[in-house]
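Slide 14.
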Amino acid sequence: MLNVHILLVDDETDTEFLFKSFFRKWIKDGKVRLSFTPDASQALDKLSLSDGNDIILILSDINMPGMSGIELLNKVKAMYPHIDVFMMTAYDNEEYRKESKEGGALNYLTKPIDFNFLKDEIVKLHPQIT
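Slide 15: predicted structure.
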């Protein structure tokens, strides 16, 4: 059985609860493992501990204190090009879209997150989940 390990990076800690609630069935069935970090530096630490082999998808907010999600995206794609990244933002603008695409993000999501769309996008990448 495929176990998709998703790393959620967002300084808004209530986001973790929302994602865990939505993916509850996948988590319960052992299809998805969801980890959470409140900032980009901790996300990089988590990746370095696993050498980037465990996490296959990062969902990152763009606006965070310290390192931005765009900076995180650029570092992740440089060090772990095999990890897929979706960017999330409450402040949609063309510059963020452009930087996300140029940085290698597979998707750009605006908050509030359309969880059904997100689920469909994850299934496209990992059809074995369903």
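Speaker note: Helices lie at 14-22, 24-28, 40-50, 69-79, 94-103, 115-125.
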